[in-house]
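Record format v2
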Amino acid sequence: MPNRSLKPKLPKSPSGCPMDSLLRLLMGQWTCYILWVLCTNGPLRFGELKRNVPGLSSKVLTERLRMLEESRIIFRDHHPSIPPQVTYGLTERGKELLTALDELFEIAKRWCVEDESVASPESL
Amino acid sequence: MPNRSLKPKLPKSPSGCPMDSLLRLLMGQWTCYILWVLCTNGPLRFGELKRNVPGLSSKVLTERLRMLEESRIIFRDHHPSIPPQVTYGLTERGKELLTALDELFEIAKRWCVEDESVASPESL
DNA sequence: AAGGGTAGTTACCAAAAAGTACCTACTTTC
DNA sequence: GAAAGTAGGTACTTTTTGGTAACTACCCTT
């Protein structure tokens, strides 16, 4: 049986600022992308999730999932069958978080369009 | 004269996703905190900014400011007087971004309160 | 005339993060 | 009977970051 001992080691936010803890969590590479995949695809098994994020290693995926689970942003549903079946999905907190991240996404898209129209002006 | 040659080296988002570029920018340590300080205090000079973010080194501050300037999230106002006077502040883009980040901040605060009330339930 | 403040830059080093490869234990499929 | 798939864990290496200290050039203050 896997012992789930991989240490997530969030530095525990010495400043005590709530935003600091949240940023520290989201700032890790892949983290937001993992959340976005879980949001658009619904709950996924470990392997499916990994296949949906090309380039992501098992090690890092496990770390990220542990941190997100600990913060109750995602849930972990474990069926100790053979082969084992573990499903991850967004909790209510996770969905709430995604609505905020979605706003960032909208901004990113808007800026991208703006930048393109600056790069190639319509005056031809 | 400082030659402003410090390479910001954003990995240029190989995936081409707009959100990826934005996250790559915001994800760096201190970046969001710098933006928050500029938002709450208004435009600040380099030294003032540094003093407002304890623990942040000149090197990293310069790197972050260059990246944010390049993305037009902050502006850089340079008066080549002696001593030199350089002021940084949020652009319209920056202010737009901060409204989105503020929502994350609200979520972080709410969760923090929730977690405390779970840790010490009112049933005494 | 020595020290401090201005806004950085550079080189060097230490720490943290991420990637790689290989391992479990069991079943199903080829 | 060997390979592949399940969900990770472990050890090792490499890459990326961030911090430190010293430096620029010029002025004002003590």
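The mean pLDDT of chain A is 88.
The two ends of chain A are 66 Å apart (CA to CA).
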